[in-house]
């Protein structure tokens, strides 16, 4: 079988035949890619039209008198042309309807697959978020534990007036000696500093945080402070507080409101 375009032999598996002019073509000569041709259904191959037939919009012009000379009445030719155009329209409609159905089915299949993939992704993200939240909670608990451990040897002093160029460690030593902590050695008070406060009443008397050498030493300071207040109250028969003047005679007679531990938030 010979191709009407390239005039070479055609293997049967590569054959396309125009449904109108019955001309035979290689699928490539007929304007089809190999992929499209291999995927073509038999009904589409049966309705295949070559380029010449596809773009014909009217029957070829007849020479005057040629219809009569051939013995075919012009009305018959016109009717045949009309039927050919109608058949072409019906086949085109069937072809496009088939292609449209295939496209809709493909979109539907892709939609279901996409929904499934998205659902799996969402579940994976939810698992990762849950794992991340668990890690954050564990880290927060560990951080709180470390902070509590770092504060376990701390005491807080409130109400002690500030002085110019003060040495906060020496201030804490003076408070310790006043409340009866004896034999304060170097290193017992490892660090001491004042911290900012939003309380307007503490302006000029910012709280002091002191980190002592051990938890045992911290407990001694707290105990001595309580004993000092109790002893002073027994002397005056009234509730008594440690004052700044008790610590340093040059300071005003204002209460040191608290000496307490801050091992927890």
TrEMBL record:
GO MF annotation: an example: zinc ion binding
Record SMART domains: PHD (SM00249)
Protein name, entry field: Uncharacterized protein LOC103519851
Coiled-coil region list: 108-156
Organism: Diaphorina citri
Highest taxon, organism lineage: Eukaryota
Keyword Transmembrane: no
Zinc finger PHD-type domain mapped to chain residues: 2-54
SUPFAM superfamilies reported for this sequence: FYVE/PHD zinc finger (SSF57903)
Taxonomic classification: Eukaryota, Metazoa, Ecdysozoa, Arthropoda, Hexapoda
Record key words, sorted: Coiled coil, Metal-binding, Zinc, Zinc-finger
């Amino acid at each position: 079988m010979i191709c009407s375009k390239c005039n070479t032999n055609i293997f049967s598996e590569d054959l396309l035949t125009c449904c109108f002019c019955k001309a035979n073509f290689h699928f490539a000569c007929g304007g089809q890619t190999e992929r499209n041709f291999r995927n073509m259904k038999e009904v589409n191959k049966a309705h295949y039209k070559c380029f010449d037939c596809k773009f014909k919009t009217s029957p070829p012009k007849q020479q005057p008198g040629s219809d009569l000379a051939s013995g075919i009445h012009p009305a018959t030719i016109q009717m045949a042309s009309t039927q050919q155009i109608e058949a072409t329209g019906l086949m085109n409609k069937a072809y496009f309807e088939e292609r449209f159905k295939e496209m809709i089915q493909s979109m539907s299949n892709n939609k279901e697959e996409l929904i499934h993939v998205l659902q799996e992704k969402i579940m994976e993200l939810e698992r990762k978020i849950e794992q991340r939240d668990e890690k954050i909670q564990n880290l927060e608990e560990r951080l709180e534990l470390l902070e509590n451990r770092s504060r376990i040897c701390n005491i807080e002093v409130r109400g002690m007036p500030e002085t110019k160029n003060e040495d906060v460690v020496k201030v804490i030593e003076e408070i310790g000696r006043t409340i009866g902590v004896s034999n304060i050695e170097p290193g017992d008070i490892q660090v001491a500093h004042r911290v900012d406060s939003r309380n307007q009443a503490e302006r000029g008397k910012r709280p002091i945080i002191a980190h002592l050498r051990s938890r045992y030493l911290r407990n001694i300071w707290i105990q001595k402070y309580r004993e000092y207040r109790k002893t002073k109250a027994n002397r005056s028969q009234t509730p008594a507080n440690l004052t700044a003047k008790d610590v340093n005679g040059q300071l005003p007679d204002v209460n040191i409101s608290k000496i307490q531990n801050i091992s927890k938030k």
